[in-house]
Design brief:
The structure holds two protein chains of two kinds. By secondary structure, chain A is mainly β. Chain A has one helix and five strands, in the order ββαβββ. Chain B has a five-stranded parallel sheet with strand order 5-4-3-10-9. Chain B has a three-stranded parallel sheet with strand order 6-7-8, with helices on one face. In chain B, helix 3 runs parallel beside helix 4 (109-121). Classes of the chains: A mainly beta, B alpha/beta.
Chain lengths: 66, 255
């Protein structure tokens, strides 16, 4: 299925969870904040929440800034 | 001792983590600055080049992280960034920034006040970045800001304390710490703000773009200490008329 992740279309397996996606992208689930279809997903729910066709994801994290 | 929202800090220098040439250089500069509070920003992960994770570069036991809402153009965007920050383990500290005009990066006073009200209700410790407006500073304190952060000059300009007159009034009226933020381009600028009685200053660009950021960080640390000591010692009064430092008497032998 296709999802939109950080503005780009991505082809992923059906019923992929947020946790699996974050780990597959080699990111640390403890320091990435995920917004799915405009709502923040709390880290406790990464393992359960499945993505569906057309899901719009934002993966955000802290960077250097003033 | 600087106390913000009940939290004590030995250092009166806050440091921003942007624009450093490398994570290692940033880490060393922050170490040299002696700072105990550092700002960070929230951005999309670059999936093609994720790079270093700042949360693993800096020791979270050692520094209080002050996430900012940089990039927010209105209160809705600032609130959204603040909530993301909390969800990603950023804690309750928040440097609130609402800058609708990318050319000046000046803060929007109306949206900043609105966002402060919302975020204080949600339990955030809000430190609003603000124009050096004494009336706005009072309103932000009334709204529950735990400190106010008036600008010295526009972000990243290194122009120093162009707002000296207004910052003096803000300090005089303040019931919460006043942290002069933005535009401090040299240690002398930081010392000037501290001599006026600012409780702290925040510096980023001037350190990050220096030829030697680590030495510059140390220079800022010394300037902040010097300025604070001068303020606490009580500076002499300015006056127009010259007053001899040497005795006026005992010059009879010249006649």
């Amino acid at each position: 299925m296709k999802i939109i992740c950080n503005g780009k279309e991505m082809d992923v397996k059906d019923s992929l969870t947020i946790e699996k996606l974050v780990v597959d992208l080699d990111l640390n689930p403890a320091t990435v904040v995920v917004e799915c279809n405009g709502s923040i997903v709390l880290p406790d729910n990464y393992a359960e929440q499945q993505l569906s066709e057309g899901s719009v994801l934002e993966l955000i994290r802290f960077v250097g800034g003033g | 001792m600087l106390t913000i929202a009940g939290h004590n800090f030995k250092s009166r220098l806050l440091v921003g983590t942007g624009k450093f040439a490398s994570s290692q250089l940033m880490k060393e500069a922050i170490d040299a600055s002696g700072s105990e509070m550092v700002t960070v920003a929230l951005r999309r992960v670059d999936l093609d080049d994720p790079g270093d994770d700042i949360m693993s570069v800096l020791d979270r036991e050692r520094y209080v992280f002050l996430p900012n809402t940089s990039g927010a153009r209105n209160s809705d965007e600032a609130v959204r960034l603040a909530r993301m920050s909390k969800a990603s383990g950023g804690g309750e500290w928040l440097k609130l920034e609402v800058t609708p005009d990318p050319r000046t990066l000046l803060p929007d006073p109306v949206e900043t006040l609105k966002a402060t009200e919302i975020l204080v209700r949600e339990g955030f410790k809000v430190l609003p970045y603000m124009n050096a407006d004494p009336i706005l500073a009072l309103k932000l304190q009334d709204a529950g800001a735990v400190a106010v952060m008036p600008l010295g000059s526009p972000i990243g300009t290194n122009q120093g304390l162009l707002t000296r007159f207004q910052v003096e009034i803000i300090i005089d009226q303040a019931r919460v710490p006043v942290i002069v933020d933005a535009g401090l381009g040299a240690p002398s600028h930081a010392a000037e703000a501290m001599e006026l009685g600012a409780d702290a200053v925040l510096v980023n660009t001037a350190m990050a773009v220096a030829g030697d950021p680590v030495r510059m960080a140390k220079a800022f640390a010394m300037a902040v200490e010097a300025g604070r000591s001068a303020y606490e010692s009580g500076l002499g009064r300015r006056q127009a008329q010259a007053m001899a430092s040497s005795p006026a008497v005992g010059l009879g032998f010249l006649n």
